[in-house]
Amino acid sequence: MVKANGLRFRTLVEGPPDGDMVLMMHGFPEGAESWARQMHVLAHAGFLAVAPDLRGYGLTDAPEGVENYGMEHLVADAKGLIEAFGRTSAHIAGHDWGAVVAWYFAGAHPDMTVTLTALSVGHPAALAAMPERVVEGFVRSMTRPGRLTAGLNYYRANLKTGGAAWERLQRMGDITSPTQLIWGDQDPALGRRQAEQTRAHVKGRFHLEVLEGAGHWLQFERPDEVALALSQVTAI
Question: Residue 166 pLDDT more than 80?
Answer without folding.
Answer: no
